[in-house]
Amino acid sequence: MRHYLVNLGGEEVDEHVVTGPDWRVETSAEKVNVAGSMTLTEVTVTFEGPPETLDPLMEKFGRKAMRAGG
C-alpha cells in the first residue's frame, strides 16, 4: 500500500506513514481470528486531508488497490 501511495506523489515517512502535498496516510495491520484457527490480516488505511485533495487521491488509490487484488 505504501508503494501505491508513493507512486501517487507521497513520501514514505516511516513504516506506517506516507505524506503528500496536503495529505497524510497512516496504515496499520493486525491478525484477526475469523473462524477457529483461521486468521486474516486486517489492514486499516486512514486518510487525512481536505476533501478536495482526498477525493481524487482515494479514487486513484482505490483503482490501484483493486487491480492489485484482482
Q: Structural class from helices and strands?
A: alpha+beta
Question: Which bin fits the share of residues in helices?
Answer: 25-40%
Uncertain segments:
none
State the strand order across the main sheet.
Answer: 1-2-3-4
Instruction: Summarize the biggest pleated sheet.
Output: 4 strands, antiparallel
What's the structural blueprint in terms of helices and strands?
Layout: H1 2-7, E1 11-14, E2 17-20, E3 23-35, E4 38-48, H2 51-69
Antiparallel strand pairs: 1-2, 2-3, 3-4
Question: Can you describe this structure?
Answer:
It is a single chain. This protein is an alpha+beta fold and 70 residues long. It has two helices and four strands; from the N terminus they run αββββα. Strands 1-2-3-4 form a four-stranded antiparallel β-sheet. The radius of gyration is 14 Å and the shape is elongated. The mean pLDDT is 90.
Relevant terms:
alpha+beta, 4-stranded antiparallel β-sheet, 46% strand
In a few lines, what is going on in this structure?
With 70 residues, the chain is of the alpha+beta class. The protein is 36% helix and 46% strand.
